[in-house]
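Let's practice the habit of predicting before peeking. Look at the sequence and jot down your guess about where helices and strands might fall. Then scroll down.
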Amino acid sequence: MVYDSVPIAANTLLPHVAEATVGLKAMPAPLTEIHVASGDTVDGYGDATPGNLEELVSLGSLGDRVGGRFIRQGGETVLRSLVDPPHWDDAVREALVTMAMDWGFPDPKFPDRTPVNLNDG
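Done guessing? Here is the structure:
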């Protein structure tokens, strides 16, 4: 019962109480996060084994990596100043760079953004 009532109260009551006491404009904007995870694989015996992100995505193009631990997941909060639509690409790129640095790529390389012309035949 507690497991059901606490999230319900937090998600439905708390926003209304906060809005009534401090006002809508005083409330901070919600955070935007990006998460990457490889998920689990099931072996021949039916046991779940954590997957390795490098088995699903080629990370070799990011550059030289320091350390040898497995990369299973990553997550980063997008900079609030970049969340507006004109800066969305920069926000995602910045979050991915930070994740790559956490994974052991001290100077991650990402491809340059090249505009695509859909009119070229």
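How did you do? The chain has a mean pLDDT of 78.
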